[in-house]
Amino acid sequence: MRKEVDRYVKRCRVCQVSKGMATNAGLYMPLHVPLHPWVDISMDFVLGLPRTQRGNDSIFVVVDRFSKMVHFIPCKKTTDAVNVARLFFRDVYRLHGLPSSIVSDRDTRFLSHFWHSLWKMVNTQLNFSSAYHPQTYGQTKVVNRSLGNLLRCLVGNHVKAWDQKLCQAEFAHNHDCNRSTRFSPLHVVYFAQPCGPLDLMTPRVSSSVPKKVQDFVAGLHDVHKAIHENLVCANSKYKQDADHKRRHVDFEEGDFVWAVLTKDRFPVGEYNKLSAKKVGPLEIVEKINSNAYRLKLPSHIRCSDVFNVKHLIPYHVDSFNDDLAMNSRTNFVYPGGMMEAQVLKNGLTCF
Q1: Which 8-state DSSP code applies to residue 121?
Q2: Half-sphere exposure for 187 (CA within 13 Å, toward CB)
Q3: How far apart are CA 8 and CA 174, in angstroms?
Q4: 260: left (phi > 0), else alpha (psi -120 to 50), else beta?
Q5: Which of 8, 245, 249, 333 shows its CA 20 to 30 Å from the CA of 178?
């Protein structure tokens, strides 16, 4: 009896739509480890800051995924894709050149036609996170939290002068030793640790014998190699810790699934606690990677069609459409035969 009830409820359409939320599906899948500084970068925005005298209320954050070096660029919330590109070329490109890949979220500025066309012209690959899944570019989110802590310590009571303290916050972040690379970002990029305020308080003894160019290049190469190995080891450790409570779930193109709709995916004013949390069944049209799938959404749902695997739940055929299940219920639960099964089909949706 219990098996029949479990099987019936598992295939019930009402239960599949109304019950259950995101799962622990999807193993940790780190991004590839770069080989050189400022080849692969990530970018994001920090919003909601007090407006300064210069009209800035946001920060454009650019992070190098190899050295963990950052650039904090003050901007406005209304800054469009054209001006974001100008900020990048003014403050990042002139120092480090063009990247080969950019990781970002699905901000409207990063999804614009201008942004795609610009980076396509310079052969830079754009990698976007799954919608409403910030773990994809978690490194940038960690930097944003660190930036908030630094600014709170620096601005004090002068909260509307935070843009004048960004240079100090940027130097402090880049001067500090990173836990993953075990080097400071400035050391990784420039193979030298610049003097900080504490270093200027004590006299430094300089060597009278300058290093040879060959030694400098060899040392820089050794540092980059050590950083790459440290990042690989760090990623392996993070993956082992993260996968401890996760499970692997795999779908193929053509499979049908239920998609969990988080609060952020609902249009403004349409979300309520009694709304159906899942939509479907939806067909998987593309498998982007093991943790991201593109779905064929109905026309009335206007949100990103890329879902993380933790927001996908396998679709089970409706109980009444499964002849085998219906016959089994008729024989076991309702021995009266097909007549009572038809009454059940027309008048009962679930136990």
Answers
A1: H
A2: 19
A3: 58
A4: beta
A5: 245
Q: Rounded mean pLDDT of 250-279? A: 74
Residue bearing tokens 């290093």: 211
Instruction: With beta carbons less than 8 A apart as the criterion, state whether 287 and 293 touch.
Output: yes
Tokens 């002849």, residue? 323
What is the Cα 225 distance to its own chain's centre?
A: 27
Q: Tell me whether strands 101-104 and 70-75 are parallel, antiparallel or unpaired.
A: unpaired
Token pair 């035969």: residue: 337
- Nearest CA among 195, 173, 167, 198 for reference residue 185: 173
pLDDT reported for residue 338: 37
Q: Quote the pTM value.
A: 0.58
Q: pLDDT for 48-87, tens place per residue? A: 888 988 889 999 999 998 888 999 999 998 999 999 999 9
User: What are 79's two structure tokens?
Assistant: 């800054």
306 vs 117 pLDDT, higher one: 117
Compute the CA torsion angle 222, 223, 228, 233 (nearest 10 deg): 100
Q: What number is the average pLDDT over the span 156-165?
A: 85
